Amino acid sequence: MIRIKYFRLIIWLLAPVVLNAQAEFRAGTSQVSIEPDKSLISLHLGGYGAPRDGRFTLQWKKLEQMPELKTFGGLQDKLIAVAKNELLYKHFSGTTPHWIKAGDAEDIRALTALNQKIYAVNSSGSFLVTDANRKARWRKLKIPEKHAVSLASSGNRLFALDQKGIIWQTDLSLKAPEWKSLESVDGIISIAANSMKLFAITGDGVMYQCDPSRKEILWLKAAYRNDHTIKEDIGMITIAGNTIYGISREGVLYEGEHRSEGNLTARALAIGDGEKTVVIINADICGLNDTYTGLLKKTIGERHKLPPGAVFINSSHTHFAPVSQDWLTWQEANQRPDSVYLYSTLWNGILDAVGEAISRMIPARLCFGRGATDIGYNRSLKDHPELYDNSVDVLKIKYLGDSSESYLFLAACHPVFSTAGTLHYTISANYPGVARKLVEERTGTSNSLFLQGTAGDINPRDDGEYITGEKLANEVIAVISRPMTELRGGISYSLDTINIPITPWTREEIIRYREENSTRPGEIYSEKNVKWSDLMLKYYADGTMPGTLPVYLHTINIGNWKLVGFSRETTTSYGFGVKELWPDKIVSVAGYTNDVSSYLPTSLHIEARNYEGLDSFFWYAMPAVFPVNVYEIIMDKVAKLKR
Questions:
Q1: Average pLDDT over residues 319-333
Q2: DSSP run (H or E) holding 508
Q3: Among 155, 181, 153, which Cα is nearest to 73's?
Q4: What are phi and psi of 163, to 5 degrees?
Q5: Is residue 244 within 8 Å of residue 237, measured between CB atoms?
Q6: Does residue 14 carry a pLDDT above 50?
Q7: What is the DSSP letter of 544?
Q8: At what angle do helices 290-304 and 347-359 cross, to 10 degrees?
Q9: Angle at CA 541, nearest 5°, toward 539 and 545?
Q10: Which letter does DSSP use for residue 260 in this model?
């Protein structure tokens, strides 16, 4: 009897310790840059259909004056040039501060470099070669003559631009190389190449790119003189060490670079309770589609044994990141993302962030707090100013090992600064990037994570990303300075699909709509509507016109905190509706989660026929607008699932 009482006493004494151990989480955070490297030369920024000519990241940085330069090219570690009939080279890394003479180059009209050899063409069209690491000793190549004005090379391929603006290519590995013409654009005056693409610039300053290995050559715009970030009149281009260089008609040498604030990141927060682990990810991009996030989740699952429901992928929705999803009704250069950026830079950035966050998991306490901010307003429902969720939700992760902290914060507002001047062409995480930086600087933390809320119909109230970012950061810091609610309990998650029935237009309606819009070529909205019509008619021709559109509902419960994520550009009312379903719980609601393939409006938007309720569906190439009762369909399903 005494032993039993003693045993019960021990259990009673240990109970608080056991409960605390069960409530204790493990957490880890990370951030990885998703800035494009120089090898990508120039990328299109996503988020706006205007200007019609596009928004490209390339800008030129002045290096030096070279008025007597005749032609130039590039190797992996240096630039080569011809001036005053002499061959010159210069290490662009700065190890050789001056141009070094490398021998005679009389009568050299154009040159390029490949595999430590310099290839050149003279005024008679003959091709010459010399060793790049020795004094020039030119010998003639057995290649058919071509009166080329510009040369480029990649792999074993030599490209030549002739006097008529036609681009030719040949394979140098063949015993008897032959020239084959490439389909090209008009007005080309210079070409350059790297391992991935061939670039060409026209006399009026437009740069194009293509993949020359494809059977069907598709030239896409890569940059142009926009009078903001590019004003230079570039007459020659070359690529060396994955960097593009240009020479202006005034003889100024420029180095190409991405115009960027340098703050694009993929960030991850991993949280485990001993049985289950979830990863919350945010990337500084405009959006992702479900196919891409599905592949990401599959890879994350294979690497870390996490099911899709345990991986929450949110886009910050900055309108100043490289295109990351298909925009099939937009201008050609903006229709599809650069595959190298999408499946290398962004892909590896997200996977690395997840891996690092998981590997850094240590015991931690999680606390939640909520504040409020006035950074936004409802841009489309002016008669309903109450339809703006001004909540600033903050999750504090306090690591037990060293008492350091990390923060996750959620707010709802479009990151759309700025639509004018140089900022319109600048890579930027926008106000979320400003807010994160300020929070980290002022709290001494090494990492913070932003989640985009139900911002579909919310625009910034103030003029400038720094004002909005400062306001948001100040409120986050205020929240963590006040008492917060500690999270207790286990982890659960679910990922559900709600299929919304739609009524596509008839074939006749689409044909009539196309005819109405085809009379205004060059007008952005009309061009978009024509492209939309062509896509819809193809659906009918292929028999693939969908009858439903999916909305994904992602729920993660961490103790007494519920994080709900909707796909698409979720409007405000959905956040309010979800919070009303769980009045006794801490509930945060994000949009832009796992898939951003259209807006998610309510009857107010649809009946008003405003941008969120009508025109945006054409921009997103959707086959139809959601039905007027879409909100009721979704909220009924959320209530029944009760996740």
A1: 93
A2: helix 507-517
A3: 153
A4: -65, -20
A5: yes
A6: no
A7: -
A8: 40
A9: 30
A10: B
| Inter-CA distances, 176 with 143, 151, 462, Å | 7, 19, 66
DSSP 593: B
Side by side, the strands of the sheet bearing 548-558 are 491-501, 548-558, 561-566, 586-590
Chain-wide mean pLDDT for the chain?
Answer: 93
Determine the average pLDDT of the residues in 1-16: 39
Structure tokens at 308: 């899709």
Task: Give the C-alpha separation, 534 to 513, whole Å.
Answer: 10
Query: Residue 163: CB partners within 8 Å, gap ≥ 6?
Result: 147, 149
Would you say residue 16 has pLDDT above 70?
Answer: no
Which of 390, 416, 563 has the alpha carbon at shortest distance from 475? 390
Phi/psi at 510 (5° precision): -65, -45
Tens digit of each residue's pLDDT (9 = 90 or more) over 539-595: 999 999 999 999 999 999 999 999 999 999 999 999 999 999 999 999 999 999 999
Contacts of 412 (CB under 8 A, 6+ apart): 376, 388, 389, 391, 452, 453, 454, 455, 458, 572, 575, 591
Spell out the residues 6+ positions from residue 320 whose beta carbon is closer than 8 angstroms to its own: 45, 47, 415, 423, 426, 427, 428, 429, 430
Q: Which residues of 73-105 are buried (b: 16+ CB within 10 A; e: fewer)?
A: bbbeebbbbbbeebbbbbebeeeeeebeebebb
Alpha-carbon span 309 to 315, nearest angstrom: 17
Q: What does R_g of the chain's alpha carbons equal in angstroms? A: 29
SS3 string, 213-256, reads CCCCCCCEEEECCCCCCCCCCEEEEEEECCEEEEEECCCEEEEE
What is the rounded distance in angstroms from the CA atom of residue 497 to the CA atom of residue 308?
Answer: 13
Helices 524-542 and 507-517 pack at an angle, to 10 degrees, of 150
Cα 164 from Cα 181, distance rounded (Å):
12
The token pair at 640 is: 């029944």
- First and final C-alpha spacing in the chain: 46
- ∠ at Cα 533 (528, 539), nearest 5°? 130
Question: Which one-letter amino acid corresponds to residue 159?
Answer: F
